[in-house]
Batch of 2 targets.
Target 1
Amino acid sequence: MIFSSISFLFYFLPILLIIYYVLPKKCRNVVLLIASLLFYFYGEPKYILLMLFTIFQTYIFGILIDKYKNKSKIFLAISICISIGALVYFKYIDFIIENVNLLLKNKLSFVNIALPIGISFYTFQLLSYLIDVYNGKCKVQKNIFKLALYISLFPQLIAGPIVRYTDVEAQIEKREHSVEKFAIGVRRFVIGLGKKVLIANICGEFNNAFFASSEKSVLFFWMYGISVMLQIYFDFSGYSDMAIGLGKMFGFDFMENFNYPYVAKSVTEFWRRWHISLSSWFKDYVYIPLGGNRVSKIKWIRNILIVWILTGLWHGAEWNFLIWGLYFGIILLLEKLVFGKILEKIPPIFSRIYTLLIVMISFIIFNSENFVQIKENLLGLISYKNIPIISLESIYYIKSYLVVLVIGIIGATPLMKNIVTSKKIEKIVQIIEPIFLISLLFICTSYIVDGSFNPFLYFRF
Amino acid sequence: MKKNNSIIITVMFSAILILIFLLNIAIEDNKISESERRKLAQFPEISIQSLLDRKAIDGFEDYSVDQFAFRDFFRNVKSFWSTNIFFQKDDNKFFIKDNALYKMEYPLKEENVKINAEKIKNIYDKYLQENDVYYAIIPDKNYYLENDDHLKIDYSKLKNIMQENLNDFTYIDIWDELTLEDYYRTDLHWKQENLVKVVNVFEKEMGITQTLNSYYEKKSLGEYYGTYYTQTSNNVNPDEMYVLTNEIIENCTTYNYEKKENGEVYNSKETLDKYDTFLSGATALIEINNPYRKDDKELIIFRDSFGSSIAPLFIENYKKITLVDLRYMSSELLEEFIEFDNQDVIFLYSTLILNQNILK
C-alpha cells in the first residue's frame, strides 16, 4: 500500500483514525501494531512471515546482548549476520550472481526472488537498536509488542525516515496527542502528498517522455537533468513529509529527513541536508566504528569510500547505484582535501551552481539503467555526436511541463516557507491555510482517481 | 499554529476522509462506466489464496479507483487542473482543438512500420501473387491539423517505409481526398457519410465504374460519444453518427467466423461503442454477402477498425467481401478460412495501427 493511493487515503487511514481515537488510550499501541502489520501484509503478503521473524530475532538477540554482557559481542555479531544476511539474500543475491557469472564458465542460476518492501529501511532500524543496546545507549525492550511496533510502524516502514529506537523509545511508552499536533501532521502529510502527486509524478512523466524520445536535443538533456533532480527530491522528501505527518497524527515525532538540499553551497553541505536519517545512520554505525577521521589519512580515505559505496548500494543492487555512491565519495574527498576552502570563499551563486551541477550529474547516473544510458545522458549535455541544440519535440515538452518545473524549482528552495512564515502575513496565512490544504488534498485525489502516472520509486531500496 | 486553525484543519481533514470513505461504502457499485464505455472493476473475491497471490489486493486497488465516489467529477477536476493551471499541452496525450478531441500519436516507430510492412509482404508472397493487390494508408486526423504545435509522426517517412517494402502492390493515395471534417470530433475514426469520395478513388484505381453514382440514404443514429471522449475527461460536444444505406446494403448478410453467427451490415443492437454499428465491431474474420450480385467477384480487405465503415460502400461491386483483421488472427491461419483465387485484395491500414506492432 502506498500513501498516494485511494486504498490508503480513503479506506485504511480513515478506518485507522476512527479506531485509534475511539478506543481507550491503553489500546493505541496495539491498534497501531495491528494496523502496521496489516499495512505490510497488504503490500507484501508473502513476506509478513519474514517481518515477524525479523522482529522475533531482534527481540531475542536484544535480550541476549543485554543479559549476557560477556558474550554480547558474539550475540551482536550473530544478529547482525542474520539481518545483513537476509538483506543480502533478498536484495543483492542476483546482482552478486550476475557479476560472479562474468568470471565463471558454468553459470550460476539466478534466484529471481522479489525484494521484500522496505527491507533496507527496517533492517537499518533494527541494526541501530541492537547496536545501541550493545553500546548501552538504550535500554533493551523486554516487551516484544513494543519492539514490534518500533520496527513495523507503518508511517516510516516502507520509505523512511530511518527512525532510531533511541528517538522513539519514550514515545512508544507515552506520547502527546493534541489537536495542534494532529493539524501539523495534516499539513505535513498533505504537502507531502502534493509534492509526490503534483510535482514528482509529473516530472516522472516528463522523464518518461525524454526516454521515449527519438529526437533528443541538448536542451532536452538539460531539462531532463533538472527534471530528474526534481522528481527524486520531491518523491523522497514528499514521502518523508507524509511519514512525519502521519507520525504526528498518531502522536510520534520523527526526525526531519530533508532540509532544502538544493540550496547547499557544497556537496558536503548537500549531504547534511539530503536523506539526513540515512547519512547520519552510516556516520554513526559505519564511519565512526571504522575509525572516522581519527586514523591515518589512507584509512580515513578508505573509511569514506567504504561508507559511500555502501550508501550507493543501499539504494539498489545495480552498478549505477554503486557508481553513484563512489562518485559522491570521491567528490566529498576532493572537497575535503582540495577545494573545500575555495568553495567557502567564492560568491554563493557559484558554489551553488557547482553543487547543483554535481548533484544533477549524480542523479542522471542514479536514474540510468546501464552504462550506455549513463554515457548517453551525460554526453548529451554537451552536444555529443552532433545532437542538435534544440528540437521541436524538446520545445513541445518544455512548454508542456514548464509550469510544473518552475513550481518545482521554487518549491525546492525555502522561498515559500519564508513567505508563509512571515509575521506580516500571518493572519492571511491562517485564513488561507485550511482552504489551501483541503484543496490540495482534493486535487491530489483527482490525479490519483484519474489513474495518472504514480510510480513507487522505493521498490529497489 | 493557532488553536482555532488547528481545530479547523483537523476537523476538515478527518471529516473529508471519513465522509468519502462512507460514501464509497454506501454508493452502489456500477457495473459499467457510461462515460468511459468500459466495465468497471468489482469487489474482488477474498480468500487466503487470493490474498497470498495478491489477486485480491490488486483487485481491490482497481476496485477502489474504479468505484470511487464521484469518479467522473474528479477526473474532470484533474483534466481542468492539468490544462488550465499547469498549462500542460496535453492530458495523457489528449488535447482539444476547435471543439474536437485529438490524441497525440508520437513518435514514429520506424521499426514497427517496417515489421508491419514485412508482415504484409509475407502474406503477399505466400498467398497473393496471382491477385490484384492494392494498399492504402489512412492518415490519422492529426495529419490534417494546421497551425498547431502538438507533435505529429513523420508521415512521409511512414509512407516511404511502406512503399519500399510493398513495391509489388498498387498504392492508392487517399490523403488528398480527406479533410479534418471527414473525422469524428470525439473519436479517432472517419465518418462513413463522407467516404463516398474515398470509395470513388479506390474504384477508379481498381478499374471499377459501377457505383460512381450510387445512391445512399443518410440515416442518423443520434448522438455519438467517441472513444476519445471516453478516454479523456476533456469534454466537447458529441458528434452525430450517420450510416449510409440503400436496398443492397440492407439486404446483404454477414457471417462472423469468430462468433459463428449471421448478421446484418449495420448492427442494430445496443452496444457500449456506437462505432460497433459497423459490422458489429472488432472481429478477426467476417464476410459480407451480396444477394443481388450474380457473378463471383470477390474482394478481400485486410483492415483495422476504419475498414468496418468503408467496407459496406464497396459491396455493390462484389458478390462477397471478406474482411480480415490481423490484430485478432494470425496470417498463418488464413488458408483454413479463405481460398485465395482471383479476388481483388486491399490492404487498408491507418497510420495508428502501422505505428504499432500488433499485427499477427
Target 2
Amino acid sequence: MKTITVKSINDSSKSYQYVDNGEPMRGGVKDVFFSPDKKYVVAIFRDKLDFNQKERLQRITNHYLPQIQNKEAGDYYLNEVFRWPTDVIEHNGFIGVIVPIYNSKFFFKKGYETSDLIQGKEKNGKWFAGAKFRNPQFPLKVAKSELGDWLSYFQVCVNLTRGVKKMHAMGLAHSDLSYNNVLIDPVEKSACIIDLDGLVVPGMFAAEVIGTAEFIAPEVLSSKHLNKTDSNRKLPNRLTDLHALPVLIYMFLLHRHPLKGGKVHDLDTEKDDLLSMGEKAMFIEHPTDKTNRPKLAQGSKWDLPWADIVKLPYSVTGPYLKTLFDKVFIDGLHNPMQRPTAEEWEIALLKTTDLMQKCHNISCEQKWYVFDNTNTPKCPFCGTAHKGTLPVLDLYYQFKPTVWKPENHRLMVYKDQYLFQWHVNRNITRNEKITAEQKVPMGYFTFHNNKWVLVNQKLTSLKDVTEDREIPIGSMVELTDGKKLLLSKEDGGRVVVITMANK
Amino acid sequence: MRRLPVYFLLDTSGSMYGEPIQALNNALSGMVNTLRSDAQALDSLWISIITFDREVKEIVPLTELVSFQLPEITCPQSGPTNTGAGLDFVIQKVKKDVLKGSPTQKGDWKPLLFVFTDGKPSDIQLYREKTPEIKNLNFGAVVGCAAGHMANDEILKELTDNVVHLDSADSSTLKQFFKWVSETIEQGNKSQGTGEGVTLPPPPSEITVVI
C-alpha cells in the first residue's frame, strides 16, 4: 500500500494523489485508484496513449468541461448527469484522468435480497435493465428496496436523455452508450453517465470503440468488416447514440431487448447474432412483420413476465413513447436520419408521466401505470382495475383569438396530483433549466365530498369557462365531464377540457 | 436466451493432493463469487466442472450460474493423470449439452474450455487422439493452465495456443489466475474496439503466458 503523487499535464502546478494497494479496480481499458480522501479517482490507461488520444482528453477537460460549467444548468449536468473528467495526469509515461467520485447513492445499500455479495458495489445499469434481477423467484434477485417503482425509471430515463441531449448540443457524441456506462439509482431516481473519456468529436476525434454489444447501431455492425478508411464503414456518431439511447429506455421500462427475438438468420451463433443485431435487425414488436417475435418457450423462465410481449406490449409505455419507439425501431432502424432526437425522447417521457395513474393495489410492484385510453382502465402489471371516476384533462393552446387547438398533451388526474406552470402555460418548458420557483405547484387535484376538484393555490386568472366564473386563489372548482377551464389569461395560457373516464 | 457454456476440466491426480487441491478449491469458490456478482455473467453463464485423475468425474453438470453450487473437490493421494480421458468426456458432454442453432431455435454461444493441470498426461496417446477433436468442436476459446514445475507446457500447447503457466499451485497464484479466468468469461460485454476479433485480456503480471 503506497500513496503516489501525480502531476497534471494541463497545469504543472496541480498534483493529485492516489493509493496503490496493488489491486486497482479494472475497467475495460483503465486501472482505477482512489485518492486518499476518496473524493476523486485516478483512472490510468493500461496502454500508452498516442498524441491524438492525449489531445482528446485535454480537450474534454480544458474545453468541454468549462463549456458545461459556464452554461445554464451546469451544476445539474456536472453533479447529477455526468461524471466528467476534470484533469489529465501523466505517471511513468502512462496517461490517466481525474474523475470525481460517484455519489454514494450509486452504490448498493443492500444489493441482493438474500446475500451481501454485491452490497457496496456500483449500481451499473445492467442490474436494472434485465428482467431476472427483479423476478421474485430468482435466487439472486436485487432487493426490493433497491428497485424503485415504474415511475422511477421515467425520471432515470429523463436524466440520461438530457445527458445525451447536452452532448449532442455541444457537438459531441458519446459513441459507447450502454447499461455498462451508466449508473442508476431508481430510489432517488437518478442516473449518471460515466466513462466519458471516449467522446467522439466529429472531424476531430474519431471513435475508438464501436460500442457495447446490444447497443451498437445496425449500420455499425453491418459495416464492421470493412476497413476504417472505407467510405462505407460506419463508426459511432450522434445518430448511433440515438439508437443506443432508446435501446436503454426500452430496456429500463420493459426489461427486455427490442431486437432480441426468435428469428434465426444463420445456424452459426456468431453470424446469427451479427445479422440479428446488424443487417437483418428487426423490432421484436413490429406490428405487421411478426417473424422476430420472442419465443417464450426458448427463453429463460426468470425473464418473465417482461419477456412476454403479449402480456406487456410496448404500448403500455403510452402513446407518446410508442410513437417514438415505432420511429426508431421500425422507420429509423436501418435509416439513421429517421431516428428521433434526444429532446424528442425527453419530451415524450415527461408527457407520459402526466398520463400516469397510481395502481390501487398496494402490493403492486410497479405502483404506477400509463392510462390506457379506455373507459375501464386497469393496471397492466397486476391487472387491478381502476376504482371510481377518472378525470382526463386535455390541453389546448390558443392558435388565434377564439380558436384553440389540441396540444396532443393530456394530464391524468389522481388524488393529490399537482398542477404546474408547465401545464398552465405553453411558454414554459419542463426541462433542466426550470428554476426552483417554477417548480412550485400552481394548484392540486383531490377527491373531496365525492367530487373531483382543482384547488387553486397560485393561479391568478383561473376561469371556469363553461360556467363563466372566475376561480380565485384559495378556492376550488369541481371537475365535471365536458367542462372547460382557462388556466391563465396570460400569453401562452392554456385551456383544459375535462373528460370523465370509468364512469 | 443464448447460454454461454463454460467447462472446467481439472486435474485431481495424486500430485494435487494436499495444499494444491485446497488452493484450487479456494480459488474456484472465489471465482464463482466474482461471477455471481456480475450481472452479465448471471444473464448467460452455465458452468460445468469435470475432474480427471485415474477416473473422470462430472463434479457438476452444466448448470446455470445462479443455481450453481460448488462442491468440495477432492483427489486421491496417488494415481495417474488421465488428461486424454478427461478431454474425451468433455467432447461427449459438449456434443450433448450445447444447443446448436436450428431454423427455429437460437443456438448457444460457443463454449469455453479451461483445462487445469499440474502434470503431463499419463494417457498421452488418447490425449493426442482427442486434441484434434477438441479443435474441431468450435470452442470460443480453449485455455490451458499448467501449474507448477512438473506441468508440461509443450504438451498443453498441442491442445491450444493459449497456455498460461503458473509457477506454483499456491492459493494466491491460483486466485489471480481464476480472477483472470472470470475476466475472460466476462469479456463479451465490454466495449468493442473498432478493430476486429475478440482477444483474451492480458493475464495478470505474476503468471507467464506461453504462446
